[in-house]
C-alpha cells in the first residue's frame, strides 16, 4: 500500500513555480516538514545515528545494570547493535565515556581495531576511559 502525497495548496504551488527563494523557503519548508511528519510518524520514521545509539545505549544500561558479568554486558543485543553501527557510533561512545565511564571499551576496540589502553591501566575504569578519550582526541574526533 503506497501513501499518496498530500495535495499542495495553490499558494504554495505558485511559490514553487515563481522560484522566489525566500518565499519558497518560508512557505514550502514547513509544508514539507509537515508532510514528512504525517508520512513517517515518530513510531515509523527511521532514526538517525544519534537517536539509534542513545536508544540502544539506554536499553543496554537498563538490562545490564544489575549484572557484573562483562560477558553478559558485551553480548547483550543492544550492545552488539551499537557495534554494528560501525564508526558512526564512536563519537557517541566517547561522549558517553566522558560523561559517565562505563564498559564501552570492547565496543570501541571492535569498531576501531585500536586498543590505546596501557597494560598497567587494564581493569581500571577511569584510567581506561582516559586512554580512550586521549585516543579520540588524537584521531581528531569531536563529540
Structure overview:
The longest helix has 19 residues, at 21-39. The protein has helices spanning 10-18, 21-39, 49-64, 70-75, 77-84, 90-99, 105-112, 125-138. The chain has 143 residues and is mostly helical. The chain has 8 helices and no strands. 63% of the residues lie in helices and 0% in strands. It starts with 9 loop residues before the first helix and ends in a 5-residue tail after the last helix.
Summary of the model, kept short:
The chain is mostly helical and 143 residues long.
User: Which spans have pLDDT < 50 for at least 5 consecutive residues?
Assistant: none
Which structural class fits the helix and strand makeup? mainly alpha
Q: How would you characterize the largest beta sheet? A: none
Strand content: under 5%
Give the terminus-to-terminus CA distance: 41 Å
- How many runs of DSSP E, i.e. beta strands? 0
Note the topology.
Elements: H1 10-18, H2 21-39, H3 49-64, H4 70-75, H5 77-84, H6 90-99, H7 105-112, H8 125-138
Helix pairs in contact: 1-2, 3-5, 5-7, 6-8
List its traits.
mainly alpha; 8 helices; 63% helix; 0% strand; 143 residues
Amino acid at each position: 500500500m503506497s501513501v499518496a502525497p498530500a495535495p499542495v495548496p495553490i499558494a504554495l504551488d505558485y511559490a514553487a513555480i515563481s522560484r522566489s527563494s525566500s518565499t519558497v523557503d518560508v512557505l514550502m519548508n514547513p509544508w514539507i516538514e509537515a508532510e514528512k511528519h504525517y508520512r513517517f510518524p515518530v513510531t515509523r520514521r527511521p532514526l538517525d545515528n544519534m537517536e539509534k545509539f542513545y536508544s540502544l545505549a539506554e536499553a543496554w544500561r537498563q538490562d545490564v545494570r544489575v549484572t557484573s558479568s562483562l560477558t553478559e554486558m558485551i553480548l547483550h543485543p543492544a550492545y552488539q547493535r551499537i557495534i554494528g553501527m560501525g564508526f558512526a557510533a564512536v563519537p557517541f561512545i566517547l561522549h558517553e565515556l566522558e560523561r559517565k565511564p562505563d564498559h564501552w571499551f570492547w565496543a570501541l576496540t571492535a569498531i576501531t581495531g585500536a586498543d590505546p589502553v596501557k597494560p598497567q591501566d587494564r581493569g581500571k575504569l577511569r584510567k581506561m576511559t582516559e586512554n580512550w578519550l586521549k585516543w579520540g582526541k588524537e584521531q581528531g574526533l569531536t563529540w
